[in-house]
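Exercise 7.
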Amino acid sequence: MDALSPPSSANRSSSHNSAKHTSPPFDGDAVYVLAADPMTIMRNGTTSTKHSLSTTDGVDIFQTRETEYHPFLAWIHSISGLVVNDVRFAQMIILLIIVNSILMGVATFDFVTQDPGVERVFEIADTCFLLVFTIELVLQFMHRGFQIFSDGWLTFDFLVVAGSWFFSELQVIRAFRIFRTIRLITRIKALKELVAALLNVIPRMCAIAWLLALVFYIFAVLFTHLFKDLYKDGYTSADYFSRLDITLFTLFQIMTLDSWSEITKETMEAYKLAWIPFISFVILSTFIVINLIIAVICDAVATLQTEEIGKRDEGIQSLAEAIARTQQDMARLESKMDQMSSSINWMLRNQQQQQQQQQEDYSSSSSSPRLLSGFGAKFDKEL
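Solution. The predicted structure, written as tokens, is:
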């Protein structure tokens, strides 16, 4: 059957009978069928999402859960699934996202912004890219239906593409079109797994964030009380600690180690021991809390690598078990072949013995008339 034409009733009936004839037993609504097409099964106006169970003689055995569709809708569902699940189509989308991101960066140069004609060309190119992304999203919707909203990555794609259309006239919002580049995360497996690992450690990151906020608040109150009037008295070149919010911003600057030594030295002109709270804050915020965040991220990456190694080991173990089962099957087959060979040899020997016995019986039966004829000739000669 042509993959680009709707299935006829005769083809659906024959494929149904073939699948039914070769299907192993199943439980509930899980149906095991043999199919050469790894994307979508269409049978009597049904289509299914499949999970591969095993492969035999180049034919995949899948477990499917069928959903009833009109035959034409089932055909549309099948074709869209073939497109969106094709590796070449996914690679093309990745390439288009990269090219679109590069063009959006080039569009910020003066030779584009100061020339309306060139800027118009870039706008048209951006619209073409957006049309391609929209077509891809429509194909995803045709294949998955409203289930795309159960996938966080596809939901993100939908929000980015829909937002690009709805807010295309707002100049401020249009600047956020560059966030389409983030869709690369949904396309590249390594980036997706890394982001998923980071999302898994959010609870621990939140705990560290609460600890950092507590450290900030304690030192903000302390520094505001101790150094509130330093700017008024002319000891500091800028207002660092006059209010709690200003102190919090100053502490964030100190945590990043940006000019923290200059702030400390200016404060030490009024208070010689001012280095003690400053260094205490730097040690707690920068050398402990921030390193805790880095440690959590590294642990997430290490966990991801461990899971990948575990999956690889499981695959190797499964392959080894399959090889062992194959060897056992071959040993049983060889044993049966030996038994069959022994049986055949016994039958051949038995047949040979029967043939020899038949020949001996025939020889004895043929020699008896000749003996009688000899006695008869001798008896006639005596008479």
